[in-house]
Amino acid sequence: MTSRRRKFAAVLGVTALGAVALTGCSSGSDRDADRIDVGVLVITMFDPENAVWLQREQLPTTVEVAGAYKPVRCNNDHLCVAETGQGKANAATTMMAILGSDKFNFDRAYFLTAGIAGTPPDRGTLGSAVWARRVVDFDLGNHLDPAEAPGVPYGFRPVEDYNTAAYDLDTALVDKVYDATREATLADSPEATAERAMYPGQEGRKPSVMKCDTMTGDDFYSGKPLSDTARYIMGLRTKGQGDYCTTQMEDNATATALKAHGYLDRYLSLRTVSNFDQPYPGQSVVDHIDHSTAGFQLGLDNAYAVGRAAADYLLKNPPAK
Q1: Alpha-carbon distance 129 to 278, whole Å?
Q2: What DSSP string describes 101-149?
Q3: What distance in Å separates the CA atoms of residue 100 and residue 94, rounded to the nearest whole number?
Q4: Could you tell me if 136 and 258 are in contact, meaning their C-beta atoms sit under 8 angstroms apart?
Q5: Residue 167 phi/psi, 5° resolution?
Q6: Contact (Cβ atoms closer than 8 angstroms) between residue 245 and residue 215
Q7: Residues 2, 296: Cα–Cα separation, whole Å
Q8: SS3 sequence, 167-205?
Q9: What is the pLDDT of residues 118-152, one digit of tens each?
Q10: Structure pTM?
Q11: What pLDDT shows up at residue 320?
Q12: What parts of the chain have a pLDDT lower than 50?
């Protein structure tokens, strides 16, 4: 896998900010009084995704959580931002640590992933912001060499449900947040326009806010056959209802941790498009996956813009107890 951190570490640096560390107290009543009431927990996965929130928000309280990838940053408006680390193992470990911590009160919290993703060029475009209705796991099952298993479509057999392979998110909540953010102003650039033009059907497209479904896989894949495989798996796991339009590396793990703590119905996945999941005609998959896409900065900027608009809406409309 090509690490997003290695490819883009130089793009954004995290601004050093002053912070107040939160420590636990000895008695149970004191601990309850010191718990942070969270209204929205924004979930990012790696440093550049996290940096746009740290640089553009005042988050003066730093909360160290044992077992979490990075400290959680919060403010007095009940907004907190966490960075889980990349991939399903990091995301699950960090989310379970945060959700199990006695430093937070999540009784009236929403949980919002705000990160970047890839898209098939026939569905999305660079800079678009996508609200997921479903999150589906790419990895679980049998992945076979299609040439040696010609009777197995795309070389994939689901085998079993695994309990974590597909999650339907709360439709009413997704629709409300989509409606609250659909008119958000999205960043674009001449460089992204030029990159889109390399793909059939992409010339002239502009980023927009969308609803469809997201695929989670620990591999950062590249190529139309793998994109088609993802679309096929999406269809199998959702009984033909899924619409594959983004690919990322963490959301099934995040959803699993939230379900374990009873919060899945308050989870929203926002993924903004930083890259296409396959090369343009004439480009090799190696060049594609090593290429610094013009959509990366757009994805970061638009994840913050749409994520902040969503957080504003959610903070004003907290969940019922």
Answers
A1: 19
A2: -TTEE-TT-EEEEEEEEEE-TTT--TT-EEEEEEEEESSSSEE--TTT-
A3: 10
A4: no
A5: -130, 135
A6: no
A7: 15
A8: EECCHHHHHHHHHHHCCCCCCCCHHHHHHHCCCCCCCCC
A9: 999 999 999 999 999 999 999 999 999 999 999 99
A10: 0.90
A11: 84
A12: 1-29
